[in-house]
Specification:
The protein is α+β, with helices and mostly antiparallel strands. It folds into two domains: about 90 residues, no CATH class; about 45 residues, no CATH class. The strands form two sheets. The protein has a two-stranded antiparallel sheet. A two-stranded antiparallel sheet has the order 3-4. Strand 3 and strand 4 form a beta hairpin. Helix 2 runs antiparallel to helix 3.
Length: about 140
């Protein structure tokens, strides 16, 4: 039996990696980079303890057979991460569309609207709350 077959047999029924596991490994590497710049030994000790905890927890989650529990932990992590992901996606879209569109918030429901760039004053209807409001754009 080859090593690959043994590894596949060992990993069968185990959870594997997910977004939380990847996040823990990224956290580990961020702490590692921060440890390069820290000179105080007590702070370095705390960083190394956090690094060890993140790495151990990541491997524990990958090797776990309690799939239901790991999925629920990952769901909680994804709910926590959702606002940051949506903010980052909005910033990425704003940068991509910076020459052709503007982004404005509805004053009533605070929804972000993507509007074509056009010079002058315009009346806009929010698709979420149907509130009408005026915007002014300086142009291209």
């Amino acid at each position: 039996m080859s090593f690959k077959e043994k590894f596949i047999r060992f990993m069968s029924g185990r959870y594997g990696y997910d977004e939380l596991g990847i996040g823990l490994i990224v956290f580990y590497f961020l702490l590692m980079i921060a440890g390069i710049f820290v000179t105080d030994n007590k702070v370095k000790l705390v960083l190394y303890a956090l690094m060890s905890a993140a790495l151990i927890l990541s491997f524990f989650r990958m090797m776990s057979r309690n799939i239901v529990r790991r999925r629920s932990e990952n769901a909680v992590f994804l709910r926590f991460l959702a606002p940051f992901k949506s903010w980052w996606a909005l910033q990425k879209n704003r940068f991509r569309d910076r020459k052709t569109h503007i982004y404005r918030k509805c004053p009533a429901c605070k929804a972000v609207l993507r509007l074509p760039k056009a010079k002058g004053k315009k009346s806009v209807v929010c698709p979420k709350c149907s509130k009408r409001f005026n915007i002014y754009t300086p142009g291209l």
